[in-house]
Amino acid sequence: MKKSFFCLLMTACSLMASARQTADFNTVPLPRQCVAQKGNPFALSSAQSIVCNGDADMMRVAHFLSDYISQATGLSLPVTTGKASKNAIVLQTDKKMTAKEGYRITANEKLLKIEGLTANGLFYGVQTLRKALPIAEAAEVDIPAVVVTDEPRFPYRGMHLDVSRHFFGVDFVKRYLDMLALHHINTFHFHLTDDQGWRVEIKRYPRLTEVGAWRRRTVVGRNTGLYDYQRYGGFYTQDEIRDIVAYARDRFITVIPEIDMPGHMEAVLAAYPDLGCTGGPYEVEPNWGVFDDILCAGKEKTFELVEGVLDELIALFPSEYVHIGGDEAPRTRWKTCQLCQQRIASEGLRGDGKHSAEDRLQGYFMKRVEKFLNSRGRKAIGWDELLDCDVEKSTTIMSWRGIEGGLAASEMGHDVIMAPTSFFYFDYYQTPEDYWSKPLLIGGYVPLEKVYSFEPAPETLTEAAKKHIIGVQANLWTEYIYATEFVEFQVLPRMGALAEVQWVLPEQKDYDAFKTREQRLTRVYDLEGYKYCKIAWEKEK
Length: 541
Hints:
By secondary structure, the protein is an alpha/beta fold. The protein has helices spanning 2-19, 56-73, 119-132, 170-182, 207-210, 238-250, 266-271, 300-316, 332-336, 338-346, 357-375, 404-412, 421-424, 448-452, 463-466, 484-491, 494-503, 511-528; strands at residues 20-22, 33-36, 42-43, 50-52, 79-81, 88-93, 103-107, 111-116, 140-143, 146-150, 156-162, 187-191, 193-194, 197-198, 214-215, 232-233, 254-261, 321-325, 379-383, 396-399, 416-418, 469-474. It has an 8-stranded parallel barrel with strand order 11-12-17-18-19-20-21-22, surrounded by 5 helices.
């Protein structure tokens, strides 16, 4: 009888021991420094609280942490204000810290403390702690005695979503923002307009959504000439935009809107055909690609619409930047348009051996738009084609056609965001060719390792030019991506590799170690119900 009782006791102790789990700070992105300390761990328990100073931003961060702990462990920790000396999680600012988005996590037996210069930094510290926690509801969780010190490499850490080719509602945009926050991404590039649809309400120009937000047919497959003849579209009301911007702001994410111009404007021309060079007829584009009909640069009413749209956009988006596109704008119509040629003459625009007079006309167009934004206290971002348009040095260049444009722009004195297709176009396949039939995508091949391998500021750049590389971004174009689960599948787990490029110093990067850490992160993906490409690292070539 005594022997049986002893065996039962030992079994119970063994089960209790196995239920205790330990947090692991080998997270994605990898913290800059993690130093183990002497002493016992901090043991999470329901008797603890999360303490902060009552500031609105701090309180919000504290409630995020409470929710994350509850989700991962089942523990419910209340948020309180005041001071705590032991047995609590404390969030506080430290004005001696220098990095705006940096943080420090200190854990010992008595206290778990997260500090930052700003609430932004505290938020990233909370995200790191969230990812360090085991997914272990009802288990006892220890935070090892440690000091974690961290800050990002780049101030601009972006992720893009095209909602023009296929439209995604407010609830999914918020879910997408949560995915960004999980990966320490602080900028959401919101591609709102293109040939295939206009997605934001502009009260001064109601036909932009009455007409431009809807296409009457969509091509089947890769421009096969076959169409489904189903009306497709949608748009965000201004109230919905405000809701999205506020949701992002709560997660310390800046939303940068893009209105692509003067090309990719067939949805606008369908709504206001007098803004084109030919007068139409136009339709909201059912095909994918680049099209000759663009805004007429010779008409003043074109600039009236652009400025009217930007005025309303600026009121909706408080971001420092507005993205004005500038890519893939054929000059075909401008060459034969009398008004465009008159503009070229009146402005004294001349071609040279490298650029045509029509190239210079686009430079005139983009500089005029940028000057308008500057007058409203905003700055312009544009695609790297703007380097062919002689734009001002104040224009930030987003390098997508490769890295060469970005490298050249940085040496010229432009701020640069690196987003080259060969590394960061997440609409490309992430699995080898034998998987390409499932599903149908635009093409290309950007596996996880390729994303991870990118160096945004190579040693070939001068030190002055390196300072102009302000960040990195990945883009998701949605010609063939029609469902929310499909969006998630295309960006995950590649968003983890992107996060390391954006956050981690080059000398810390190790792809094999990253794969292990990213596979641990998929436990959070599973917890959140995110769809992700599970064979992304299994089928690498």
